[in-house]
Amino acid sequence: MSAETKESIKHHIQVYIKVFIALAILTIVTVAVSYLDVSFIEAFFIAITVATIKGSLVLGFFMHLISEKQMIIWILVATLIAFVILMFIPLINVTDQVNIWN
Amino acid sequence: MNIPYIFEERPDTGLTNSKLGVWVFLASEVMLFGGLFSAYVFLRIAAPEGDFSYWGSKLSIPMATFNTLVLITSSVTMVMAWASIKLKEFDKYKIYLGVTILCAFAFLIVKYFEYTGKFHHGIYPSSSTFMGIYFTLTGLHVLHIIGGIAVLLFYWSPIGDNMYKEDSELLANRIEIAGLYWHFVDLVWIFLFPVLYLL
């Protein structure tokens, strides 16, 4: 984002406003969906899907990831792999302890 | 001492040092919050059925929704502050960054009322597993907000004004980097909000 012209910045501003409106609408959608009578699994997937869309908008447009260099993309790919390991490897240990308090 | 590759991109990375540095820092932040999200998931899996939903229902959804909208607003004003410097509109930059800082304080004030409301009803981090992870996650997030305010106030102060007079591109670079951190703080809240308040 270093070599920007005035015109391209003005175009960015239009995009930022649209993204802001989309984020506000999606926030309302998230809250509205939480009042629906759905199962936990359904509610979980809806909530995480909407949050992921919102997060992608912030990452892509506000953090300029959509036009960012390959180096940053690779750093984030490595982070994502480490994050997935962090989230799921402990499952191996946890699955045999579910409901141990019941 | 001049820090190298602040304006021009470093040939081997294709990035300025400051931008690469903040992205590596944010990667470490993903792992910090990721560890706690992971803890939340496994505590929830192991908890008695309905326990997390019961304690989660004690949180205020309207307050958290308001705070979500406040943080989203602060994110857009932050990026508009950067765009204003690029367009050499200094007065607009001051307004946008000022609004960002005000939004950050608004978030903290709402959080203060949320926390004190819980304490008033005898709910503390020790009250339940859910409350333990709730206060840990939101408390760590609040610390990030406070850190962000310190950085944003620094650039909103006369120090930032002088930096702009000296070289507007220098301030644009710093605001872009500070903005990346600020958007990350918003990003974390986007996931904390449904996970803690709505599920």
Folded structure, characterized:
Helices cover 74% and strands 0% of the residues of chain A. Chain A has 102 residues and is mostly helical. Chain A has one domain (6-97). Chain A starts with 5 loop residues before the first helix and ends in an 8-residue tail after the last helix. The model of chain A has no long low-confidence stretch (mean pLDDT 86). By secondary structure, chain B is mainly α. Chain B has helices spanning 17-46, 51-56, 61-86, 90-120, 129-156, 158-166, 168-198. Classes of the chains: A mainly alpha (102), B mainly alpha (199). At the A-B interface, helix 1, helix 2 and helix 3 of A face helix 1, helix 3 and helix 7 of B.
Our count of helices of chain A gives 4
User: Which residues of chain A form runs of ≥5 with pLDDT under 50?
Assistant: none
Shape of chain B from CA axes?
Answer: elongated
The helicity of chain B comes to over 70%
Cα-to-Cα separation, first versus last residue of chain B: 51 Å
Distance between the termini of chain A: 55 Å
Tell me the count of domains of chain B.
1
Classification by helices and strands of chain B: mainly alpha
Name its key features.
heterodimer, A: 102 residues, 4 helices, flat, B: 199 residues, mainly alpha, Four Helix Bundle (Hemerythrin (Met), subunit A), 0% strand
How would you summarize what this structure contains?
The complex is a heterodimer of chains A (102) and B (199). Chain A is mainly alpha-helical. Chain A contains four helices and no strands.
Would you spell out the secondary-structure blueprint of this structure?
The complex is a heterodimer of chains A (102) and B (199).
Chain A: H1 6-34, H2 40-62, H3 70-88, H4 91-94
Helix pairs in contact in A: 1-2
Chain B: H1 17-46, H2 51-56, H3 61-86, H4 90-120, H5 129-156, H6 158-166, H7 168-198
Helix pairs in contact in B: 1-5, 1-7, 3-4, 3-7, 4-5, 5-7, 6-7
